[in-house]
Structure formats: C-alpha cells, structure tokens
TrEMBL record:
InterPro entries: AAA+_ATPase (IPR003593), ABC_branched_ATPase_LivF/BraG (IPR030660), ABC_transporter-like_ATP-bd (IPR003439), ABC_transporter-like_CS (IPR017871), BCAA_Transport_ATP-bd_LivF (IPR052156), P-loop_NTPase (IPR027417). Keywords: Amino-acid transport, ATP-binding, Nucleotide-binding, Transport. GO terms for molecular function: ATP binding. PANTHER family: HIGH-AFFINITY BRANCHED-CHAIN AMINO ACID TRANSPORT ATP-BINDING PROTEIN LIVF. It comes from the Bacteria. Belongs to the ABC transporter superfamily. Residues 2-234 form the ABC transporter domain. SMART domains: AAA. It comes from Holdemania massiliensis. The keyword Nucleotide-binding applies. SUPFAM superfamilies: P-loop containing nucleoside triphosphate hydrolases. This is ATP-binding cassette domain-containing protein.
C-alpha cells in the first residue's frame, strides 16, 4: 500500500533520514520505534508532504507521492495525527472534528462519519460544545484521532499517541487503534512506548539515527535481545 524507497531528508546540512526503505501493506499495523531524534517524526512528515525530500521515492496505492503536496496526499488517503495532538484549542470539539473533513464535499457522508466518531469516542460526544483546549490529555488525543478519521483515511499515521498519558489511558488508546484497524484502516504507528507498540503491530521497523537497523514481526522484535536491552528496559 505504502512503499518507501531509499528516502533521504536533510535539515540544512543535517541528514535526518539516510536512505530509509520500508513498506506498509493493506490492513496492517506497522510500528516504527527508535530513540529520541532517530527520525521517526521526520519520516511521518515526509510521508505527509510536510517536508522536502532530498532523495528517494514514496508510492501509495501504486501512485507516486514523492512530489505531491500535503493537501493532495490527504486527498489520496493518508492522514496524520501529529505528535502533541495539535488540536485547535479555541474551537469546540465538534468544530475540530468538522475541520478534519475540510477537503470533503459529501455532506451526508461527513454527517455519518461524525456520528461514528462520536460512537467510537463517547467522551467526545459528551463534550461536543466544550472548547478543545479544556479537554484532558487523553481526550485531546481522542479528538486528534477523531479529527483524522473525519478525513476518511485509508492509511492513518499516528505520531506518539501514548505521549503524556497514564498507563490506563495508553491501554484505552491502543485498543482504539486496534479497533480502527480492525474496521479497515491501515496504521503506521510511531511510538516511544516500544512495548505497547510491538504488542499490537503486525510488523515493525527500528530506526536509529536516520536509518532502519532492524525489522520483523512485532512478536519477533519484542523477543529480540537487542530490542529488549535498548527499548524494553532490559
Ligand atoms: P522524538 O521521538 O524525540 O520526536 P524522532 O525520532 O521523531 O524523535 P525527529 O524529530 O524526526 O526524531 O528528528 C530527527 C533528527 O532531525 C534529530 O536529530 C533532530 O534534531 C533533527 N531535526 C528535526 N527537526 C529539525 C528541524 N526543523 N531543523 C533541524 N533539525 C531538525
């Protein structure tokens, strides 16, 4: 579904991605793990068209995406839930969700999807008129995910959904991710919480200083001694 070949990204003279190749197949959950500064966010931003690539190719559903802008990439079916949620704090929950559908014109479909987001996230349904900036961290993560779903993505990119959340909420968010996936949305998940991410991932890639150093099924990587030492606390 998504095929990345030899992708490089520079910030000035710093090379943040050094020829990354990876693949996400339809209906998979693929996790991308790695230490701070490994280039995980950079990779998601490059896929979303928010960063200029200095080399390599990105293909989605057989179409070249490398030179497309962010808007066309959303239209093609890729939506990102950014790190730190980036919800619109001075807008209501309902308005934030509407923003997610800004490229869609099918009013009836938008209404239907809004209802299904409220069903998936009852806490958002209870807070439709509340200003998003006053939501708790977990609720803001749900709102960011709901907003992304309003774009009707085929591939959902999630950047550190567990960040700053209590263990209980992390569990809840991960079970929602599995649920969204089970209903047909493919997921590429960036996580610091390697244990949780490998627990739900079909496959995973480990990124170190801009390069993929290891890949395998979630279970294989979770069982690897190197991964245990580096990312799973021994
Ligand atoms: P984290 O988990 O800490 O967010 P990450 O794996 O997502 O880390 P990136 O944010 O992609 O890592 O950063 C990769 C490298 O690129 C880092 O060395 C970072 O300092 C650098 N970098 C990121 N954004 C910029 C920027 N706008 N300008 C210059 N360097 C940047």
């Amino acid at each position: 579904m998504l095929k990345i070949t030899d992708l490089s990204v520079h910030y000035g003279v710093i090379q943040a991605l050094k020829g990354v190749s990876l693949e996400v197949r339809e209906k998979e959950i693929v996790a991308l793990i790695g230490a701070n500064g490994a280039g995980k966010t950079t990779l998601l931003h490059a896929i979303s068209g928010l960063l200029k690539k200095s080399g390599g190719e990105i293909e989605f559903l057989g179409q070249p995406m490398t030179k497309k802008n962010a808007r066309d990439i959303v239209k093609a079916g890729i939506t990102q839930v950014p790190e730190g949620r980036r919800i619109f704090p001075d807008m209501s929950v309902a308005e934030n969700l509407q923003m997610g559908a800004y490229l869609r014109k099918d009013k009836a479909g938008i209404e239907r999807d809004l209802e299904s987001v409220y069903q998936r996230f009852p806490r958002l349904a209870e807070r439709k008129k509340q200003l998003a900036g006053t939501l708790s961290g977990g609720e803001q993560q749900m709102l960011a995910m709901g907003r992304a779903l309003m774009a009707k993505p085929k591939l959902l990119l999630l950047d550190e959904p567990s960040m700053g959340l209590s263990p209980l909420l992390v569990k809840e968010i991960f079970s929602i991710i599995q649920d969204i996936n089970a209903q047909g949305t493919t997921v590429l998940l960036v996580e610091q919480n390697a244990k949780m991410a490998l627990g739900i991932a079909d496959r995973a890639y480990v990124l170190e200083t801009g390069s993929v150093v290891l890949s395998g099924t979630g279970a294989e990587l979770a069982a690897s001694e190197d991964i245990k030492k580096a990312y799973l606390g021994g």
